[in-house]
Amino acid sequence: MNQAEIFIQQKLAQRKLDDNFRVLKTASGLIDFCSNDYLGFARSEKLKALVQEELRRFPDYLNGSGGSRLLSGNITFVEELEQQIANFHEAEAGLIFNSGYDANLGLFASLPQRGDTIITDELIHACIIDGARLSLANRFSFRHNDLNDLEKKLKNAKGICYVVVESVYSMDGDEAPLQEIINLTSQYNANLIVDEAHATGVFGQGLVQQLQLENQVFARTVTFGKALGSHGAIVLGSKNFRDYLINFARSFIYTTAPSFYQLVTIKMAYQLLQNITTEQNHLHKLITLFKNEMQKKYHYALIESNSAIQSILVPGNSNAKKLAEHLQKNGFDVRAILSPTVLAGMERLRICIHAFNTEAEITELTATINH
Fold this sequence. Notes:
single chain, alpha/beta, Aspartate Aminotransferase, domain 1, Aspartate Aminotransferase, domain 2, 2 domains, seven-stranded mixed beta sheet, 14 helices
């Protein structure tokens, strides 16, 4: 066995020893409390029908894009779609990337320069951390949603400063205090960038717009793989910023453009999103029901959240896995989130609630958890 294989074997053995070895699983016949398909768009027959109807308008569309956007992969349809989405989110312009990971990687690897400063919430998503690492900027994190700690970091910032938060955090499901953060970034002449991945669709067009802060945010990332039930992402900002990303974001420049089918799905998901009030109201009713049912018994601590992400703390990888397996055996697709994805001692079950879930399913799930 060569040295590379020995290294791989040792690393995997350590993962198994730490009880955090990852494996791919498929769920069959279980009630979905796991996916990010908050509004049910990924399974929506109505969305499928809208996509097929739109595709019939373009009988000569290609199966693949054939190249990067800067070569053969750019078409009028995608540029018009970018502007439509920007208008929907009340932004000047937008640039579509192949995924949320690609969007944040390209943004943070290209925008901050040597001598600049990136300040991120400590619970920020891994793709933002990876992008920031690729930049030459100074990097700091502040304690989660802690405004005093953020201000300490802002006082020490050098160069152009970028503060980065998620409007709804992917693991805890709680919200960033956006208005208070904007008050600080304005005071210290810093630029706020907000990832809206888990807010778009769940909270209208996103929390930034719900709070009417779109003109006070430097840039936003909106992903299409959660409530919009499709794939890809867009970075929203000024027209100059869009041009900057086209010229300097490597994850945009050096990758094949999205397929026409993917673009059509995104377009029709946005069309569907404009008439989804009933589903959104039902989703928030279920969220309230889940929280109320969990509070009847305090076997496990529930992280405070008003979003579709409800996390139950079950410290210890083994404990979290056992509870998840118990729920799966009882028909619920719930997955454990283990360290090192979250900090040791903060292992949890991440329960995602959807507009297609029922009140009976919520009641049965919480009863099984608290049994």
